[in-house]
UniProtKB/TrEMBL annotation:
<feature type="domain" description="SHSP">
    <location>
        <begin position="21"/>
        <end position="132"/>
    </location>
</feature>
<comment type="similarity">
    <text>Belongs to the small heat shock protein (HSP20) family.</text>
</comment>
<dbReference type="Pfam" id="PF00011">
    <property type="entry name" value="HSP20"/>
</dbReference>
<dbReference type="InterPro" id="IPR031107">
    <property type="entry name" value="Small_HSP"/>
</dbReference>
<protein>
    <submittedName>
        <fullName>HSP20 family protein</fullName>
    </submittedName>
</protein>
<dbReference type="InterPro" id="IPR002068">
    <property type="entry name" value="A-crystallin/Hsp20_dom"/>
</dbReference>
<dbReference type="InterPro" id="IPR008978">
    <property type="entry name" value="HSP20-like_chaperone"/>
</dbReference>
Amino acid sequence: MADKDLQVREKQEVQTQAETTRNIPVYIPAVDIYETQDALKLVADMPGVSPENVDIDLRDDQLTIRGTVTLEGEGETMLLREYGVGDYFRQFTLGRVIDQSKIEAAMKNGVLTLTLPKVDKAKPRKVEVKIA
């Protein structure tokens, strides 16, 4: 792999359409999307987000991902922060090739994986001609 293939990507802050009640930045999570014969797999980095703080909404072919970070643990006080902490927000428009009723999500170690199955393709068939 050449050096130019490995580049650090800076976090991008986003302005959401709705106002938030938290006074922290909202970032666009970096994603990778893979395609297999049966599905698309979307992998989003959302460090600091626990599985119960992920909200995935699907409405009118619009897939919305929200992740809320927990700033400090119980009994903890932040002394030094060198990493930009904030919530995550990203939207995708899904095409007709995705079977929206079968979308699955999993979250592990701050990485969200969405499996977006493709619809069954129309199978070729032969039409039988009946004798009238």
